[in-house]
DNA sequence: GCCGTAGTGAGTTGCGTTCTCAATAGCGCC
DNA sequence: GGCGCTATTGAGAACGCAACTCACTACGGC
């Protein structure tokens, strides 16, 4: 066991770099397409592998959308939550003191907490304005 | 335009009834199989359609699992959250005063809240005991 | 420079969900 | 009660995402 695992490769770097450049959540497929557009020959499977690695180390956030999972770069490994605009995809990282509630509720019900999901969806000021003037 | 929308059909009733009988979250496929076992000739597509309708009216809760979406009956149209055992699937409905935080955080960032997801995963007392005695 | 092996890419497979479309059956109307 | 319109249904096909397979590549230790 010499721990040679996790070699540094161009592909992983490319995925991380591309993810950093995207400010909003992006799907693995989109990221793959974006890399291919830039001339990379990276494979879809590699993009998935890299993204899963990144999400496991806490370098990336994962969001479960209707069509699949979306990824987003997240420098700090700290746990946080998201406020996402349902129209334009704009994302804000927010702090919600929900951890203590999770602890409390779990204890009350005899559960040992493992993980929790808290994501908020709404419409940002811009999209809300557009909506008001257009629809209805 | 006479608004004849939403006819009452046996199939929808069957789906709702089967969902009510299941205390834990169940997948659309499982529900379909269960109905077929009972002699129904209902189609998978119809199960999906009915479940989506139910979740839209708030009569059913949806949970995004790794393998797909899980449904659960929820008589009260009231909003609540879940504490789910990752091992046995046991589910407890819990009240978490997260709504006020959603309001607050949304307002701070200029968002109009639409919906939010808060689900907690852990291990129930029984499964935790089993885990301790078995593994490690 | 050489070698062993982790990592990669193209294609394929598997699975859950949605779509298509002809057939069926609610429901309003007479 | 019977008629007609059309929402709904069911079977299978199609779709999309994610994971797997396997031969090939290239990283990194020697």
Explain what you see.
The structure is a homodimer of 136-residue chains. In chain A, a hairpin with a 5-residue loop joins β4 and β5 (91-94). Chain A folds into 2 domains: 1-76, Arc Repressor Mutant, subunit A (Orthogonal Bundle); 79-136, Dna Ligase, domain 1 (2-Layer Sandwich), CATH 3.30.1490.190. The first copy, chain A, is α+β, with helices and mostly antiparallel strands and 136 residues long. The model of chain A has no long low-confidence stretch (mean pLDDT 86). The termini of chain A are far apart. In chain A, strands 1-3-2 form a 3-stranded antiparallel β-sheet. Chain A has a 3-stranded mixed β-sheet with strand order 5-4-6. The radius of gyration of chain A is 18 Å and the shape is flat. The first copy, chain A, has helices at residues 10-21, 28-37, 44-56, 99-108, 125-134; strands at 26-27, 60-64, 69-73, 81-85, 91-94, 112-123. The structure holds a DNA duplex (30 and 30 nucleotides).
Report strand % of chain A. Answer: 15-25%
The CATH superfamily name of the largest domain in chain A is Winged helix-like DNA-binding domain superfamily/Winged helix DNA-binding domain
* Count of β-strands of chain A: 6
How many angstroms separate the termini of chain A? 65 Å
Low confidence ranges of chain A = none
Overall 3D form of chain A: flat
Largest sheet of chain A: 3 strands, antiparallel
Which structural class do you get from the secondary structure elements of chain A? alpha+beta
CATH architecture of the largest domain in chain A: Orthogonal Bundle
Provide mean pLDDT of chain A, rounded. Answer: 86
Q: Output the radius of gyration of chain A.
A: 18 Å
Question: Could you state the order of secondary-structure elements of chain A as H and E?
Answer: HEHHEEEEHEH
Biggest sheet strand line-up of chain A = 1-3-2
Question: Which protein chains are joined by the largest interface, and how many residues does each one contribute?
Answer: A-B, 31 and 31 residues
CATH topology-level fold name of the largest domain in chain A = Arc Repressor Mutant, subunit A
The figure for the number of domains of chain A is: 2
Q: At the first level of CATH, what is the class of the largest domain in chain A?
A: Mainly Alpha
Quaternary structure of the protein: homodimer
Total DSSP helices of chain A: 5
- Helix fraction of chain A, binned, reads 40-55%
């Amino acid at each position: 066991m010499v721990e040679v695992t996790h070699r540094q490769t161009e592909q992983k770097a490319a995925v991380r770099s591309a993810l950093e450049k995207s400010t909003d959540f992006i799907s693995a497929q989109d990221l793959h397409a974006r890399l291919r557009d830039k001339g990379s020959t990276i494979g879809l499977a590699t993009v998935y592998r890299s993204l899963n690695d990144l999400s496991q180390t806490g370098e990336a956030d994962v969001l479960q959308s209707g069509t699949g999972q979306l990824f987003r770069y997240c420098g700090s490994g700290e746990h946080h939550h998201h406020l996402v605009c349902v129209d334009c995809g704009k994302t804000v990282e927010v702090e919600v003191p929900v951890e203590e509630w999770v602890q409390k509720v779990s204890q009350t019900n005899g559960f040992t907490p493992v993980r929790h999901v808290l994501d908020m969806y709404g419409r940002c000021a811009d999209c809300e304005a557009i909506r008001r003037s257009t629809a209805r």
